[in-house]
Automatic annotation (TrEMBL):
Matching InterPro entries: Cyt_trans-like, NadD/NMNAT, Rossmann-like_a/b/a_fold
Chain's gene name: nadD
Protein name (Swiss-Prot/TrEMBL): Probable nicotinate-nucleotide adenylyltransferase
One term of GO molecular function: ATP binding
Organism: Celeribacter baekdonensis
Family: Belongs to the NadD family.
Cytidyltransferase-like domain segment(s): 16-194
Keyword Signal tagged: no
Length: 201
């Protein structure tokens, strides 16, 4: 048994939702529950990152973010993890390589909100991520058009799985991605921080 690492059996399909979760909120909970259902996932792991390389300012302390995330997301098939502190990776492509090496025989689906797909082409080795890992994209308020017209969506248009077949995503070989429309929550971490409801500590 690997202490502090989530458990997964070969043959399972695990969704990975990465982010700073600074702080975690109802929007994260909502897209996680939608992803579990629509992509037919066995489990979802939240990867609470040490820091987002695309953001100039560091997040709140890891323990604070983990504790809050666990309070917000209480679900038997969702695990809150600090996996990237174990893999010592900061970029998604490297994290995915490390996770796949730790869990042979497990299938992983990278989950993201549509707002991330719109700027996905700015991520390190984004084409490598798309080429090696199925990607599930969940609609977010005000971002559908930008996501559908994004560089990533256009480049990998040929690999798009219709939303009506979303339950097959984790059982398809990459490249394969799927965009699903769901009832939306407009809560955002940046708005919570701006209101002063989440301290710096």
């Amino acid at each position: 048994m690997r202490y502090d690492l989530p458990y997964a059996r070969p043959g399972q399909v695990i969704g990975l939702l990465g982010g700073s979760f600074d702080p975690a909120h109802e929007g994260h909970v909502h897209i996680t529950k939608m992803a579990l259902k629509r992509f037919n996932l066995d489990r979802v792991w939240w990867l609470v990152s040490p820091g987002n390389p695309l953001k100039p300012k560091g997040p709140a302390a890891m323990e604070k973010r983990l504790s809050h995330a666990r309070a917000v997301m209480d679900h038997p098939r969702v695990e809150i993890t600090a996996l990237e502190t174990h893999t010592k990776t900061r970029y998604t492509a490297a994290t995915l390589d490390a996770v796949k090496a730790l869990y042979p025989g497990v299938s992983f689906v990278w989950l993201m909100g549509a707002d991330n797909l719109a700027q996905f082409h700015l991520w390190q080795d984004w084409q490598g991520i798309m080429a090696t890992t199925p990607v599930g994209v969940i609609a977010r308020p005000g971002t559908r058009g930008a996501a559908r017209n994004s560089v990533a969506a256009q480049t990998f248009e040929y690999a798009k799985l219709p939303a009506r077949a979303s339950r097959l995503l984790g059982r398809r070989d990459a490249p394969c991605w799927c965009f699903i429309n769901v009832p939306m929550s407009d809560t955002s971490s940046s708005e919570i921080r701006a209101k002063g409801d989440w301290g710096e500590v």
